Amino acid sequence: QVQLVESGGGLVQVGGSLRLSCQASGSIFRANAMAWYRQAPGKQREWVAVITTGGGTNYGDSVKGRFTISRDNAKNTVYLQMSSLKPDDTAVYYCNMGDSGRFPGQYWGQGTQVTVSS
Known about the structure:
Blueprint (H helix, E strand, L loop, with lengths): L3 E4 L2 E4 L4 E7 L9 E6 L6 E6 L5 E3 L7 E6 L4 E6 L8 E9 L2 E7 L3 E6 L1
Parallel strand pairs: 2-11
Antiparallel strand pairs: 1-3, 3-8, 4-5, 4-9, 5-6, 7-8, 9-10, 9-11
């Protein structure tokens, strides 16, 4: 069983920055790709970014150029550095562990709230 615990959310003004963290339990973190998703009120969950085991990254169009995903295998942690934040970025952010490279996998964190005020 894998547990994912997100942290780092909060209230930030338009144009500000936040860094989210997601720490995984267990020993399989380094063997799996990781992703961030988000869900705004009244909307479906949206894929934000993914990072492979080798460090390759990809981003959703709405965050490309503003968000950076990274990972530290020694700490079993994946990060999401968010900058130039907009009100539309307001959502609960979730990390997810891929299942043999497919997303979403079965393991989700509890989510962390990000609110961008204008």
